[in-house]
Amino acid sequence: MEMKKNHVIVTGSKESFLVRVLVKKLKDADMDSEFVPWTVNDINARWNGTDLITIFMDTGERPGSEVLQFLIDRMTDEAKHLILIGEDRDVELVRGQVPADMIYRAFVRPVDNEAYVASVRELFQKVAAGEFKKSILIVDDDPNYMGLVREWLKGTYKVAMANSGLQAIKWLGKNKADLILLDHEMPVTTGPQVLEMLRNDEETRRIPVIFLTGKGDKQSVMAVVALKPEGYFLKTIEKNELLEKLDEFFKTHR
Length: 254
What we know:
Blueprint lengths: L6 E6 L4 H12 L3 E6 L2 H6 L6 E5 L8 H14 L2 E6 L1 H8 L7 E6 L4 H16 L6 E5 L3 H11 L4 E5 L2 H8 L6 E5 L7 H9 L9 E5 L4 H8 L5 E4 L4 H14 L2
Helix pairs in contact: 1-5
């Protein structure tokens, strides 16, 4: 079975000679590539299967705010990236409108075509290696439950586990997490105590925390919410619902 080639859209105001050269360079490097005018309708019509968008800006020309917002929304939904090519001022103006983590590279014209193609190839290698996956740390004293959740998440996220609050703090001293799923009812050092330690440390205070709790009664839930985590999940949550809620969380906390 033939493997799908990575697909790159090069979008601009017109299909100039320089754009045609870029598209050909990508095709020569065994990637599908095409020029698409930077209108919402045109990009939307060619979007399916697209892995990367390159915005090519002629001097003084930039995509409109409607197009940029469309790209931001679609790239957020599908975790795609953007490469910018243009004059220094045009690149910086677009940078100011797009979340920084969406822009993989920016090239100031005249662009080095070989460097551009090398960056595209590097990006796809990183995507294949999972480097852009969000990192989740699960903290729970129940190894069976923790292992189950890890199995559910490992295809979509980079997942680490800690069976106590102290082990979690130690792990965070050497590693980065985009989210912590924290058991509320742990012995020795409880979930609330771990959250307090995280919030009191400059290195970890901004890491989002969602509590895992086995108690769904109103009083227990209110006690969890009062600690002001980013949210809570009941441990009875099913796999698909958990994945949907995490996907929604990362889209709104990009």
